[in-house]
Specification:
With 719 residues, the protein is α+β, with helices and mostly antiparallel strands. It contains 24 helices and 22 strands. The chain has a 7-stranded antiparallel beta sheet with strand order 7-17-16-9-14-13-12, with no helix packed on it. β18 and β19 form a beta hairpin. The two termini are 32 Å apart. This is TerD family protein.
Length: 719
């Protein structure tokens, strides 16, 4: 339902067009139901529900509750292996010994406890095959009966839901925002965009579609429905479109197996190629980068059957190597190989984005005399490059004064590998000069606000959302590198997964690191307890869904807590029917079931490529504990992944990312101070309309206010 998508994405409830009446009882029930899962309805929303007839009021209330329960992961039952978790979790060896004893007695044998303990610790027995291991020994109802109801405290999360316009207006607004975004989206938002593109096909379309992946999604809908394509101006736009409608990777990060295209679709794709190349032969240079994909696509499009589009056939001639086309990057690389760094920068000036992405390398290779030439070329490119490229370069040079502890390479699928940083640092004076020029260009692009700007201090440490690829879909999930304060006395991590067709075993684990990023211990299915950290038990089959928990007292001596999800066996994160990770915070006095939606602080999907997921790390500093979002997936092994086998590589990646200086909203707010009246929000509602920037929006801001929360922060990035 589009209504649920809108609620989950914007925290606004589309207004119902149902008949008026007395829905006050339903409004009261809605308010109570929302509080049970950590949400609250604004006064405007409650008034709207109360003014509807009972039937439409109940329909709206049911949609709202269903949407927010899914948002925080409360739509499934989170059982735990040990019914008394965290109080009745046995010692690891005691548990293995008990399982062995049950196996021996079942077969009619006898054995001493000493013999069983030796067998459990020797590694000579496959402990995971023991009777009763890895499957719930109690029902979810029995779990609830074994725990008291969670006591509510003032620290529990309360997220306010506002009232929006009608579903048609809200859908069109969200569609235009997503389609016209200046930054790429992650998989979750691309899926939302695709659904909205169908619903809004005949509505007003965005004036510009800056991100090419968005173009592919929109044109995928138009291609299937036989509508004219929009904003196709490169050959790669056509390739992305073909990958998208074939169910492949629209970012071209992974190979795609192209489907068969009906004749009508082949004609549309070839006509688009013909128009692009016919208008500019230089566009053929893009074909070389993806030559193999073009060859495979040519097998599906049959370009030789269409003589009326000769320029389209040239694309496949280049892909097959029958015609050579020199690319801009190739010409620049040839100049660099001869040591002509200044001329290489001049060549790349024709592609401002490529020049800025190559700036570090050019400045490192340039002689003292040529550095000025490169710097002038970079300066000349600033006005033509996208805002996202400017911010990326600004963050990059901010980290080039000293070599990094390790160099982390993160691809578009959030896969990460680490290598030594062998780059010599850039001179401090050069970094300062490049930074100053970038600051000036970025500041000039920021719009002037007609209203005072009010900023919630909690948003200042949120990393600039330069790409949706650096985050996951979910609730209160921040971009990679963002920091958020963590209150409470106890952290509780949870992971849930539900397999599609074959037995799948995920393992929630925690790695503890000291202040030098050395291993200080771990907790997992092989070690149930350490320094007060407790594991809920290992579930090895998720046909009906499975959940694992780990409790971490925030009084533990370590400095870094790294929760991880390992695929021990079975389906990948992309293959399972559903998978998620989240964390809750509680006080010592709070009892209750292992999962309670009111204490969920964040819940993210797990949908990356790799066998090990690192969603977030918790770091203790002078201001207390903070959550530092990572959104990384490590290759791991095909099966049998365990935390003990990855302590060094995990610590290496965590150290590199935690120590990296990320460009945050604080930087953007500082740039804005010269163009608007900026004040920090102190919790009091303003008396006049404002532009509010924060993680969550306070209720009842004055009419006419513009609100930028997590779902809209990317709109603050200038094109």
């Amino acid at each position: 339902m589009i209504e649920k998508l809108i609620i989950q994405k914007t925290l606004r409830v589309p207004a119902s067009t149902g008949a008026a009446g007395d829905g006050a009882p339903v409004a009261r029930q809605l308010d109570a139901a929302l509080l049970d899962v950590g949400f609250s309805a604004s006064s405007a929303l409650l008034e709207h529900v109360g003014g509807l007839a009972p039937a439409p009021a109940m329909d709206l209330a049911a949609t709202v509750v269903s949407a927010v329960r899914e948002l925080v992961g409360d739509h499934v039952q989170h059982n735990s292996y040990f019914v008394g978790f965290p109080d009745d979790v046995p010692d690891t060896v005691e548990f293995w010994t008990d399982r062995l004893r049950a196996a021996v007695l079942t077969d009619g044998g006898t054995a001493t406890d000493g013999y069983l303990r030796d067998a459990a610790t020797s590694g000579g027995v496959n402990l995971l095959d023991l009777p009763g291991y890895g499957t719930y020994q109690h029902t979810y109802a029995e779990l609830l009966a074994a725990h008291d109801e969670l006591l509510a405290t003032a620290g529990d999360r309360v997220t306010v839901l506002g009232l929006g316009d009608t579903v048609e207006v809200e859908a069109a607004r969200l569609y235009l925002a997503l389609a016209g975004s200046a930054t790429p989206h992650g998989e979750a938002d691309l899926a939302i965009l695709s659904e909205l593109a169908v619903a809004c096909l005949d509505d007003v379309q965005p004036a510009e579609i800056p991100v090419r992946e968005n173009r592919a999604v929109l044109n995928g809908v138009r291609l299937v429905l036989g509508r004219p394509l929009v904003a196709v101006d490169t050959t790669t736009d056509v390739l992305r479109l073909a990958c998208h409608v074939s169910g492949g990777d629209v970012s071209l990060g992974a190979p795609t197996r192209f489907r068969a295209f009906p004749r009508r679709e082949r004609r549309i794709l070839l006509a688009a190629l013909n128009e692009v190349v016919g208008a500019n032969q230089d566009k053929l240079a893009d074909v070389v980068r993806h030559a193999e994909r073009w060859k495979r696509l040519g097998e599906r499009l049959h370009p030789h059957e269409y003589d009326q589009w000769p320029h389209a056939r040239e694309v496949f001639t280049v892909a097959r190597g029958e015609r050579r086309v020199r690319t801009l990057a190739g010409r620049a690389e040839a100049a660099i190989r001869t040591g002509a760094i200044g001329p290489a920068a001049s060549v790349l000036s024709a592609a401002p984005g490529l020049l800025l992405r190559s700036a570090d390398r050019l400045l490192r290779l340039a002689s003292a005399a040529e550095q000025r030439v490169v710097l002038d070329a970079v300066t000349g490119a600033l006005g033509s490059a996208s805002g996202r490229v400017l911010f990326s370069l600004r963050e990059h040079v901010d980290n080039r004064l000293t070599p990094a502890s390790a160099r982390v390479y993160v691809n578009r699928s959030r896969g990460a590998c680490v290598g030594p940083d062998r780059r010599p640092p850039l001179p401090a004076g050069l970094v300062a000069e490049v930074s100053a020029r970038l600051d000036a260009e970025i500041s000039a692009r920021l719009p002037e606000s007609p209203r005072p700007v009010v900023v919630d201090p909690a948003v200042l440490d949120v990393a600039l959302p330069l790409s949706g690829k650096a985050t996951e879909g979910g609730f209160a999930v921040l971009p990679r590198g963002s920091r958020g304060s963590v209150s409470g006395e106890l952290l509780r991590f949870f992971t849930y997964w539900r397999q599609t067709s074959r037995r799948t075993d995920y393992d929630l684990s925690v790695l503890l690191l000291d202040d030098e990023f050395h291993t200080a211990g771990h907790v997992s299915w092989t070690n149930h307890r350490h320094e007060g950290v407790v594991y809920s038990g290992d579930v090895t089959d998720a046909a009906n869904g499975a959940t694992e928990f780990i409790d971490v007292p925030l009084t533990l001596p370590g400095h870094y807590v790294v929760p991880q999800v390992y695929i021990y066996a079975g389906e990948s994160f992309d293959e399972v029917a559903e998978s998620m990770f989240g964390y809750q915070t509680r006080t010592r006095d709070q009892q209750g079931t292992p999962f309670d939606a009111r204490t969920v602080r964040a819940r993210s999907q797990l949908r990356g490529q790799g066998r090990v997921a690192l969603p977030v790390v918790f770091a203790r500093g002078e201001q207390g504990w903070q959550a530092v979002w990572l959104h990384l997936y490590l290759p791991g092994m095909p099966s049998f992944n365990r935390v003990e086998d990855n302590t060094f590589t995990t610590a290496d990646r965590v150290r590199a990312l935690v120590q990296r200086r990320h460009l945050t909203m604080s930087y953007l707010v500082d740039r804005w101070r010269a163009r608007a009246e900026v004040t920090m929000w102190d919790g009091r509602l303003p008396q006049e309309p404002v532009t509010f920037i924060g993680i969550d929006a306070p209720g009842d801001l004055p009419d006419g206010s513009e609100i930028y929360t997590l779902d809209r922060l990317s709109e603050l990035i200038p094109e």
